[in-house]
Design goal:
Distance between the termini: 34 Å
Strand content: 15-25%
Radius of gyration: 28 Å
Largest sheet: 5 strands, mixed
Strand order of the largest sheet: 4-5-14-13-12
Helix content: 25-40%
Oligomer: single chain
Structural class: alpha+beta
Shape: flat
Number of helices: 19
Length: about 550
Amino acid sequence: MKLHNQFLRLHSRCNDNNVISITLGDIAKILDCTHRNAMMIINHMAELGWITWTSQRGRGRRSTLHFLVQPQEIAVQSMMEAINRKDIKRALDGISYHTQSSVLQEHLQGWLLTYFGQHSEIRRDRQIDTLRLPIREQIGTVDPLYMNLLAESFISSHVFDGLLRRSNGSDEEILPNIAHAWDVDQSRTVWTFFLRKEVLFHNGRIMTAEDVVYTFERLIHTSRRTLYSSIFRLIRSIRALTPTTVRIELKEPNELFLPFLCTSRAAIVPRDLEQLGEAGFGIKPVGTGPFKVTEMNESLCSLEVFAHYFRGRAHLDRVEIVHVPWDMMPGSSQAADSLSPFHLIHNSASAGDEWSHLHSDVSVRKFITCNTKKTGPLSDPAIRAHVLSCLRGEAAEQRQSLQGCALQIATIPQYRQDAEFAAEILMKQGCDCSVLAASPEEFKGAVRLESDLILFAFVRDRDEQLRLFDLYLTIAEHVEAHTRIDIETSLRSIARARDPQARAYGFKEIETRLLQEQQLFIMSERPVQTAYLPSVRGVTFNSQGWVDLRNVWFPPVSTLT
């Protein structure tokens, strides 16, 4: 691979001419090596048929270097070697390095597309099916306690299992999972779960009630502010009654507790996690799910099927999830929604096939809320209303109407572009508007409370009511006291409502109030869809709207042609 890079460096420094006059000393300087090494490199390239070298003897005399192959061919060879060695980062860095050449960039991107999708091979009379998925987000951890990103939750949902799960075909139906049955007392605060026998972790150990106890105690005692923390902090006590029976007592009834148990956040982890090394558990996890992690780094997560999965073996043998910044993918654009799901794409053999599109009934809503708890311009309802009017495009003719107003928009890196777009609108009105893009952890803390406007996104999936509960608790932290009290009172009432429709009505009332008080501006809402080719079968979605890899399969190789 080093030789490939040396060829590309030499070709680019020679102004991309195919035939040049040059001294050996010039080549040594370009390649940052000795004259002797430069001659060895030239001879090696000539042996490979990449160049011809006509040497002229004598100090200072110029020789002739003739390039016989195009740089894109060498770059693709280099990428292929890197990817075959699973050195994804180096391959992607290679694309980035050559972005100055549009022809080369297009060539490399086209080849990269063929790398993803379905790949089948026959080994010892067995078809081994691998699915490669590109994702935008860089994976940091799949530990249920520490994950922040949708991509991390997607992987975690296939490595771990929760006590319960949602039906893939119903918004409200909750089904058995690790727990095959459960009871609740009349107060709806004492829940008893009966576990399946001999559910195995990936390391071969049998999961017991003690693992469930450890999982929830770990959540309860964390100092981290995580999604759904308001739900699991309601747990007063949890204990194992038998190896297959767990009792959880809540401080007060909450009808969102069972839906919470279906989420990736509530996935069961082994009680000997510390012995495995908690710091490394996020990249070398041990779960009970249909796939186990065999490799994980900043650019690649490799999953292999767990044959002893209690709900039955998945059809796929391997899944490779690769972090690819979306501007490296063909057909991508900076405006692409950063929360679009994963695409099941095929290799180039089916490039002429028609794409199929499947909607998961999931949408992404981007919004801006106002921090009226902070002393500043937005404490004035009239200014607040005008700011949101500008963002809605209703004050385009009123130039410089926000002259002298200084505002800061807080967001996370994924939505920086949206925040900068909003800031540009306000600056046209004379507003001194800045953008602060903080990490997800920083965003959960003081960054929000120190800013004037807060931009984020909300995924409307089957966990929407859980997400709304968490969202409105968060918004209540940066609104005026009387609004905060009313929101928290409404949320307590929602949590006690057993009817999902009654809860939905309560959430809608909160949204309506925030809109009327000019506390909330909904920027956009877009449905998400997954594109796939006909040869990929079993494409269904789980409760979060993600492709459920448990069900994906390919026809036998002999039927693909």
